[in-house]
Amino acid sequence: MQINKEVLLSSDTKIAVSSYFGAMTFDQKAMRARLPKEVFSALQDTIRAGKKIPEDIAGAVAHGMKEWAMDNGATHYTHWFQPMTGSTAEKHDAFLSIDRDGTPIERFSGEQLIQGEPDASSFPSGGMRTTFEARGYTAWDPSSPAFLMKGGKDLTLCIPTVFISYHGEALDAKTPLLRSMDAVSKSAIRLLEILGLSGVSRVKTFAGCEQEYFLIDKKFFSERPDLVMCGRTLLGALPPKGQQLEDHYFGSIPDRVLEFMQDVEHELYLLGIPAKTRHNEVAPHQFEIAPIFEEANIAVDHNLLVMEVMRKVAEKKGFALLLAEKPFAGINGSGKHNNWSIGTDTGINLLDPGDTPEKNLQFLVFLVAVLKGVHKRADLLRMSIASMGNDHRLGANEAPPAVVTVFLGGLLENVLDAIESGKVDLKTEKQVLNLGLAQVPVVNKDYTDRNRTSPFAFTGNKFEFRAVGSSQAASVPNMVLNTLMAEAVDDFADAILAKVKAGKKKDAAILETLREQITATKAIRYPGDNYSDALQKYAKKNGLPNLKNTPQAIRVLEKKDIQAMFVKYGVLSVEEIHSRLHIRLERYVKGIDIEARTLQLMLKTLVIPDVSEYQGDIGNSFNNLLAASEAIGLSDKALKSQAGHLKALAENLSSLIDLTGKLDKVVDKLETLDTEFAKADYCADVLLPFMVSVREVADRLELMVDRSRWQLPTYSEMLFEH
Ligand code: ADP
Ligand code: MG
User: Is the CB of 349 under 6 A from ligand 1?
Assistant: First the structure.
């Protein structure tokens, strides 16, 4: 489709969204219009099969894509990829090239489409490459449509790609995700065949990412070095009205924010991203956007674009977008609820309770397979969401704790208990299963809000992984979910087949395996309040991992059985795992180092000078008072009160100066430690707690100092002024 410029540039258009949805993507419609028929259908086959694009059609696809992009005003193209930094990267190339006879011409070859060659040395590889092999390759993921991104004055053709090294190692987050999608598909098809469902050629995983974020006024943002450098505040006293009243949630959305949301949605629709819901969140100035779920790799790409588009639109609207998990201490943080499900290419959601006994058995097997996977790999799931930002949020009385448990809801708990306790006997089992579950669709709605404290909750026909951090790319959590599911599903299938081999009838073998697995995974089910102390005790008693911080969680990648699982399913090689481990650790240490240095800067150049100046004023005023006290007949007691005020100020300032001096030493020590793990542990155990203790004094002083002397915008201003 030729994009109508008016639509493109204005979100004020009143045209129905469906008429321009995806207009900036090289989607089915555009492909059909631009590609020769045979090429179009060959490309569709490739996409359906989840394969790489064959070289013989690449030239024709590239040509069609280029014509489409240029007709819509693009001059450049880029391979858009996800390096292991957790964000996205792009290197732009012009279509322009110069012919041998000197004539300028726009060119885009099949080779340029399917493979690019950016210099890999500027992206982290975690030690996977030696320098003489610094080449990396990007290759188009044809299942994710190319799109045109607005930037500056122009549009750029963005081609979603994987990023791999010269030797084929994954240098990105997309490649392992795609591999995990293949792995779980293969395992699930095998299990489905055992269960008697044939004719499925691909099992897909789906994700829907609810994205939480804060919006604050840009002028406040630019006056806070901590927000500019670290994306979160390192100082700041809690306002008298925090979120005690919780009146923000689902409250009316301020007009200025609503306009931001509308502009964001307009851009997203052009990019074919199905934004669906928008609302306020718990904290002041906190909001959420949720799209309709899509196949996992596309959902991940789209979530990255959602974050990027929001950042750009916020900038234009005079806002700063805060995606950090905990931008304000003491105020509700942000997450990314990753709704996840698994289904067939024939349209069956395997986590949807059915209306026949057969379907329900299939549902129960897949449901319990999820329990099995999460139970066995709870520590890995915890690893998948570990980051320095998320450490501040997890378990902070508002977000899932570091312990991973699963919430199923009362009805399913009863069904599983009945199967486990043998109340459901083999002869009547099918019938009872049917009776038990016939009610499920009726109570579906109740599932959604029954246990908001659970990190991993079943919500009717999908699981909602709520511990994912708001700023992180969803690729790793989904990659881990798919892989642990591939393994659990395979184990399930193996167990059934072993019983059949031993002479059991298939139905009996399936039910017996189900029963065994329900018992074996029981500990992972936790119906209670996940914010309570009881959970901590429960975790200890039942041997559930409780990895308190990022370095502890990252260590999981060193476990041999976890490495073996990734290798077995072709998702990550041992070398690729090591590279990720190093990059995660390095980013953690660097991030906290930057935070500590930013804090030093703020204390030395803003807080201490502001307080000193104010103290000087009070000191002068006290001296004047002292001189006049006899003349005005001020009592000793009254004089003492004022002296006390000055004293308190001076004592706190002295203590802050001392602590700032100590902070210098604590920061300097980091560099002297020799291993990445030693550094990371030091950050978690020493540096961060020390930063908190310094902060306490600074925050106390903030509440004692004349507001006009305090240069940093306060929490009250940032969170309550519109
Ligand atoms: P809530 O706020 O109650 O958690 P929302 O409606 O905000 O619910 O978000 C639910 C998310 O789950 C949406 O992104 C939705 O598209 C997604 N979702 C719904 N069904 C599925 C499914 N089968 N698989 C994956 N995601 C799903
Ligand atoms: Mg949710």
Answer: yes
**Higher-confidence position of 150 and 22:** 22
Q: Does ligand 1 have an atom closer than 6 angstroms to the CB of 302?
A: no
- Distance between Cα 222 and ligand 1 center (Å): 35
Looking at the chain, the domain(s) classified CATH 1.20.120.1560 span 588-720
Best residue for ligand 1 mutational test, from 203, 210, 211 (most atoms within 8 Å of Cβ): 210
pLDDT per position as a tens digit, 639-652:
999 999 999 999 99
Q: Which of 271-285, 448-462, 548-562 has the lowest mean pLDDT?
A: 448-462
Q: Tell me the β-bridge partners of 342.
A: 205
Res. 121: pLDDT tops 70: no
Q: What does the alpha-carbon distance between residue 47 and residue 57 come to, in Å, rounded to a whole number?
A: 13
The CATH class for the domain spanning 5-171 reads: alpha beta
Which CATH number, 3.65.10.10, 1.20.120.1560, 3.40.225.10, 1.20.1530.20, labels domain 588-720?
1.20.120.1560
Q: Using CA positions, which residue lies closest to atom 7 of ligand 1? A: 290
Q: How confident is the model at residue 89 (pLDDT cuts 50, 70, 90)?
A: confident
10 lines ligand 1 (CB under 6 A): no
Q: Which ligand is nearest to the CA of 208?
A: 1
Residue 341 Cα: closest atom of ligand 1: 24
The pair of structure tokens assigned to 216 is: 């604050």
**What is the per-residue pLDDT for 448?**
45
The pick from 279, 339, 461 for probing ligand 1's pocket by mutation, whose C-beta has the most ligand atoms within 8 angstroms, reads 339
Residue 461 CA to ligand 2 centre (angstroms): 13
Tens digits of residue pLDDT in 37-67: 999 999 998 887 777 788 889 999 999 999 9
Contact 572, 176 (CB under 8 A): yes
CA angle 270, 276, 281 (to 5 degrees): 120
Q: Is 50 left (phi over 0), alpha (psi -120 to 50) or beta?
A: left
Among 561, 473, 471, 394, residue whose Cα is nearest residue 213: 471
